[in-house]
Every structure is written in C-alpha cells, then in structure tokens.
Design brief:
Blueprint lengths: L2 H9 L3 H23 L2 H17 L11 H18 L1 H8 L9 H4 L3 H15 L3 H12 L4 H8 L3 H20 L1
Helix pairs in contact: 1-2, 2-3, 2-4, 3-4, 8-10, 9-10
GO molecular function, one term: sigma factor activity
GO biological process, one term: DNA-templated transcription initiation
Organism: Croceitalea dokdonensis DOKDO 023
C-alpha cells in the first residue's frame, strides 16, 4: 500500500493505517520534540499527544496544502513550543532535585570545575539545614523569594531575614 492510500485510510479512521503511519514517523516526531524541549521522557509523552491530536484531526489534513509529514511536523513543533511556554514545564524545570546535578561538574575533568565543586560543598557544610534548603531554592532552582516563601509556607519577611543570615554565615565560614 502506498503512502497516499495509507493516508486516505487513516482519514477514514482505519486504526491499522494509523499504526503504520505511527511506526513510520514516530521516531522522527519524538526527535523533533526532543530537540525543542530537551527532556527525553517528556518528549516521548508529547509524541504520544501529537499522534492523538493527529488522530483527532485526521479529517483536517489536506493533500493539496502540503505533504503529510510536513503537516505532522507542524503539529509536533507547535505542541513542543506550547509545552515550553506552559507553566507546568517551567515548574518541572524549577523543581528538579539538587541530587540530579550532583556529579555533573565532577564528570568534567577541568580543574576549574573541580575547585568550584569543592568550594561550594565546603561552604554549604557548616550551614543549618534551613539555609541549605533556602539557598537550593533561590540560587540553584531559580525560585524568587516570593516563590520560595510559598513553597516553604513561610512569610516572605522571614525568607528575606533567613537568606541574609545564611549569606552572612557563608561569608564568615569562607573567611575561616
């Protein structure tokens, strides 16, 4: 069966034709989404979403307006861009645990990165747990003070006082 016949059957909601088109294009579509959002798991989920949209919108494909693959790519690209703009994507990126970054600098053989890693670890060693958590949220995860206050269920004034105290402790520890 040629591509035109396959697309025609797909537009008639033939599930076997849909499966063949999926097998034909899924890797390419997942790859395009991954290039845009740079998250392997999420790109696979979005790839599934794209094919669900394609199934739902099968009647809207018009052969005179362009190739099927181009139509499919446009849906995938728009879905990936929508994901990048979404709040859930931004929050997912913010809420990655610090543990996922441990060892990233150590894998690099550059001496400068190793020195920075050692310096950061020693500065955080002498701090209270509340300080480490607050510094993690504000400086490593990119939270604003207001967002950190909401996350920790603490008044913003307390957050400001704590961060000032924590920074003072870091300065004192670094002088030792």
């Amino acid at each position: 069966m040629n591509l035109e016949q396959l697309i025609e059957k797909f537009q008639q909601k033939d599930s076997q034709a849909f499966k063949e088109l999926y097998d034909m294009y899924a890797n390419n579509i997942c790859g395009v989404i991954y290039v845009i959002i740079k998250d392997k798991e999420r790109s696979q989920e979005l790839c599934q979403d794209v094919f669900m949209k394609v199934w739902d919108k099968s009647s809207s494909y018009n052969t005179s307006k362009g190739r099927f693959f181009t139509w499919l790519l446009n849906i995938a690209r728009n879905t990936a861009i929508d994901e990048l703009r979404s709040k859930s994507h931004k929050n997912h990126k913010k809420n990655q645990p610090l543990d996922s970054f441990v060892g990233k600098l150590e894998q690099d053989n550059g001496l400068e990165n190793q020195v920075n890693t050692i310096g950061l670890q020693s500065m955080l060693k002498g701090l209270k747990e509340k300080c480490v958590l607050l510094i993690d949220l504000l400086y490593f995860k990119g939270y604003t003070q207001k967002e950190a206050a909401e996350e920790l269920q603490t008044p913003i004034g307390t957050i400001k006082t704590r961060i000032r105290t924590c920074m003072t402790q870091i300065r004192q520890n670094s002088k030792l």
